[in-house]
Amino acid sequence: MTRTGHGLVVLLSGTIPAERVMSFTRQDSPQASLASLMEAICANPLWEEMPEAHLVGRVEPDVMLGVFGNFTDFQLARLEDLAIHLREGLTRHRYVDYVDAERAVERLAEKLKAELGPECIAKAYFSAIPRGGWVILGMLSYYLELCPRQLVGIDSPPCSPDDLLIIVDDCALSGVRFQQTLQRLEHESVIFCPLFSVPALCRNIEARESRVVSCLSAEDLEDIGPARYGDDYPTWRDRRKQLLGGHGYWVGITEYLAFAWCEPQTRYWDERIQGFSAGWNILPPDLSIKRRVAAQAMNMMRSRWSILEHSGTGPLLPSQRLLWLDNGDEVVLARLPLGADSSIPVFSLAGVAADMWRHLMGSGSLEATHEALLARYRVDADSLLEDLKAFLTQLVDHQVILVRDPP
């Protein structure tokens, strides 16, 4: 085996149970759930910017996922972002389907009734922040029995100075979109109703905007920033506030949230343009309209990913923490360390060595591999066997292959 210029970025190291991945992807098997997750990663513009990268995963004995390739510093930073996003999303996530949305909208309707009363609701006008807000407002209009005249465009001027405008959205994570909307409005009395939001965001809106009578949400989101950054979280928030330049009402990191119609867009600070750019989406395309349409437009979901399987019945097994990529010309291997900060050496097998590996994985047997190679190469049988044994010894010494005890 020879060291190679290829690198491996570990996205999932086997610490997240398969049940979590299945729950996130809504698949009924570890294999199907990992495939769904890999399709989600490939359906990203950021992935298109890494044409030499290849996703490799396995589900036994644990779910592991990595990216092989030669990466720039920018690409490494984005893949590190992806690893964090995956770990947090798989560990704690909220996927809101249409049934969940209806229940949450019903709770929002009850809060509005308690806050305003039926007479005020009957006189109020309602609008939504496109496009997820319109999904919520459609449901809310039935729960509140609104008249068609009460549903207005977001830029519609008030009929009188006393008109109350209630603005609905599916979520508010920073409040930037509501802030931009409010700046365009002529209304003097506004209520903002994001279906999901962080309580501090709503409090900040009420404190900073004199025209906002109230900010009501149906469900509270948790701030998971302290779990990610620990004592460094205030420093991260100060830096983020500086980059945002006063836009929005709250800076932080919420638990992962996605809807059956869309997945809120993550963003990262892009030094190349000195601004924020779209980050990773990790929701499987079949769980969201917007993701599904985007994936179909990219037409590349099935490209550059593979799930490793060991079909051999013999005593030779790949190491439990091994990932490998067979690109036809060579086989690239990397064994994931147990420690998070350990380096990951990547090795390359080419020519006959690559063929030896393929047959060892296919049969799990030294004898079967020897027979298959004899049928392909015109070499002395004894010499080939000695070379094969030496190769296998090297793989075992590097803990790339394990020898299973006989039953």
Explain what you see:
With 407 residues, the protein is α/β, with parallel strands linked by helices. The protein folds into 3 domains: 2-92 and 257-306, no CATH class; 98-220, Rossmann fold; 313-403. Helices cover 41% and strands 22% of the residues. It contains 15 helices and 19 strands. The chain has helices at residues 18-25, 30-42, 45-48, 73-91, 98-116, 118-123, 132-143, 176-184, 199-208, 225-229, 233-244, 289-298, 352-363, 366-376, 381-397; strands at residues 2-3, 7-13, 54-58, 64-69, 93-96, 125-128, 164-172, 189-197, 212-215, 219-220, 256-259, 267-270, 275-278, 305-307, 316-318, 322-326, 330-335, 346-350, 401-403. Strands 6, 7, 8, 9 and 10 form a 5-stranded parallel beta sheet that branches. Strands 1-18-17-16 form a 4-stranded antiparallel beta sheet. Strand 7 (164-172), helix 8 and strand 8 form a beta-alpha-beta unit. Helix 1 (18-25) packs across helix 2 (30-42), helix 5 (98-116) packs across helix 7 and helix 14 (366-376) packs across helix 15. The longest helix has 19 residues, at 73-91. It is elongated.
